[in-house]
């Protein structure tokens, strides 16, 4: 199908975007030990500013929110200063920055966090997966169930982080309620066996995500608040039940979130096209849709079908800082190197060549 629809401009909240592409959030694990993003992060994101909307890697809102080594935070003065460099670099290139707020819940290990405490989650149920730690792969331990009267504190962490993101110069934040992390854990019946108002029914399991979204939107503006969901994705040991149960849970959630007038919904689409069509009907604002395994030729498929407004790019953006130009001109893509996805230095991070650099190398 044609890619022509990608080149139509769109206004999303306070952002005037030149096309229908965006940079998807991707963990890169290159922050300093204290969670401060460094100069390399500013270079990496700044290189990709032509994508317009840059959604950052998952960024913890607190010590409890960290799950992996060298992921960035956005809750200290040092974090704010580091992210300001990145925001400035993106803005200098004509792009916009949304920082993804990722509290990992049970997807953590004490060896990976500043305080070395047991992870916290909706219920005391281990995910049954191994995690990379400073001493190698270890099982993710059983988390401590968050007490009912502590949930307000967790929500407040998201609010503090959202305010810090705006202070750092970000144009908004994306609440991560997907991919096996804490918001997704509250939604999943095999990770949430609570018997209070945050567990049991479809409405109760959605309550945490809705309350976080409302609190953040109230704090920084709904036009600065996006959210990511991944219905039915079996990540981090989660099982959300049958197709029908997943549809019931997420259509309720999306309809409730729609009442908050959030600026966008970022859907990590797992292949249930019936649910995608229903979400499209239920969501009044901008819809981003990312689907695993898309080829270059398929990037605009959901937009062409009227099922999405923006197509975020993952590995294509990671390996091609000038991916927009490559798509427009039909130029070949660089191949992403999985060995350098997580951790390390500039190799596989800021050293992927642009077309101009490739031409210079060829001419040398």
Automatic annotation (TrEMBL):
Pfam family, one: Oxidored_FMN
Cofactor(s) listed in the protein's UniProt record: FMN
GO MF assignments: FMN binding; oxidoreductase activity, acting on the CH-CH group of donors, NAD or NADP as acceptor
Gene Ontology, cellular component aspect: cytosol
Cross-referenced SUPFAM superfamilies: FMN-linked oxidoreductases
Record flagged with keyword Oxidoreductase: yes
Region named Disordered: 335-364
Biased composition (Acidic residues): 354-364
Keyword tags: Oxidoreductase
NADH:flavin oxidoreductase/NADH oxidase N-terminal domain span: 6-332
PANTHER family: NADH OXIDOREDUCTASE-RELATED, NADPH DEHYDROGENASE 2-RELATED
Family affiliation: Belongs to the NADH:flavin oxidoreductase/NADH oxidase family.
Protein name per its UniProtKB record: 2,4-dienoyl-CoA reductase-like NADH-dependent reductase (Old Yellow Enzyme family)
Classification of source organism: Bacteria, Bacillati, Actinomycetota, Actinomycetes, Micrococcales
């Amino acid at each position: 199908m044609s890619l022509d629809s990608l080149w139509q401009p769109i206004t999303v909240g306070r952002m005037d975007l030149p096309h229908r592409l965006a940079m998807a959030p991707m963990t890169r694990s290159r922050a300093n030990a204290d969670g401060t993003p460094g100069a390399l992060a500013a270079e990496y994101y700044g290189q990709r500013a032509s994508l317009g909307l840059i959604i950052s890697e998952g960024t913890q809102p607190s010590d409890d929110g960290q799950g992996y080594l060298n992921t960035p935070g956005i809750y200290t003065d040092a974090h704010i200063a580091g992210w300001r460099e990145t925001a400035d670099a993106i803005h200098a290139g004509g792009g916009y920055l949304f920082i993804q707020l990722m509290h990992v819940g049970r997807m953590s290990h004490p060896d990976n966090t500043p305080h070395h405490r047991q992870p916290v989650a909706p219920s005391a149920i281990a995910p049954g997966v191994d995690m990379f730690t400073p001493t190698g792969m270890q099982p993710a331990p059983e988390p401590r169930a968050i007490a009912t009267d502590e949930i307000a504190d967790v929500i407040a962490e998201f609010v503090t982080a959202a305010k810090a993101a705006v202070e750092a110069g970000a144009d908004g934040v994306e609440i991560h309620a997907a991919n096996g992390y804490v918001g997704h854990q509250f939604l999943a019946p095999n990770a949430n066996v609570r018997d209070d108002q945050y567990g049991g029914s479809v409405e109760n399991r959605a309550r945490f995500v809705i309350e976080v979204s409302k609190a953040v939107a109230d704090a920084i503006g709904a036009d600065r608040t996006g959210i990511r969901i991944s219905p039915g994705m079996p990540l981090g040991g989660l099982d959300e039940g049958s197709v029908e149960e997943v549809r019931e849970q997420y259509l309720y959630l999306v309809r409730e979130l729609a009442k908050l007038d959030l600026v966008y919904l970022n859907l990590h689409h797992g292949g249930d096209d019936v649910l995608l069509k229903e979400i499209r009907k239920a969501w009044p604002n901008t819809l981003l849709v990312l689907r695993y395994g898309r080829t270059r030729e398929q990037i605009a498929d959901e937009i062409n079908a009227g099922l999405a407004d923006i197509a975020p790019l993952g590995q294509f953006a990671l390996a091609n800082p000038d991916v927009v130009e490559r798509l427009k001109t039909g130029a070949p893509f660089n191949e992403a190197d999985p060995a350098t996805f997580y951790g390390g230095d500039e190799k596989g991070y800021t050293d992927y060549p642009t077309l101009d650099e490739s031409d210079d190398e060829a001419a040398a």
